[in-house]
């Protein structure tokens, strides 16, 4: 079945986790009624950063970007932070030859088959 294949070949992979972060960021945008903003100049900055950094370092930088969301004082600032994070993940996926859109689709299909809150109490 699809769920069996997903759990055995995709779940908990780097690609799956990147897709999950994107889905959660898009959910936040929907909940706050904001559109993530994108800056074309940042793409070159991110691409240059990837040349010398490991996956661990890249994840640390993504965490640093997302930490700014907590300090965002208005919707525009939050839009900028989320847009930067999504753009960072997109650039990272491109650098790693990951089809991020496809992995987001796979994760969403898997999530549709799961119970609300994935059966957890939180």
What fraction, in percent, of the residue positions are helical? over 70%
pLDDT averaged residue by residue? 90
Strand residue content: under 5%
Based on CA inertia axes, which overall geometry fits? globular
Briefly note the structural class of the backbone.
Answer: mainly alpha
Number of helical stretches of at least 4 residues: 6
What composes the largest sheet? none
Distance separating the two termini: 28 Å
Based on CA atoms alone, the radius of gyration comes out at 15 Å
Number of strands: 0
Order of helices and strands: HHHHHH
* Model regions low in confidence, pLDDT < 50 over at least 5 residues: none
The multimeric state of the shown protein is single chain
Provide structural commentary:
It is a single chain. The protein is mostly helical and 122 residues long. 73% of the residues lie in helices and 0% in strands.
In short:
The protein has 6 helices and no strands. The protein is an all-alpha fold and 122 residues long.
Which helices and strands occur, and which strands form pairs?
Elements: H1 2-9, H2 14-32, H3 40-50, H4 55-71, H5 75-95, H6 100-112
Quickly list its features.
122 residues, mainly alpha, 6 helices, 73% helix, globular
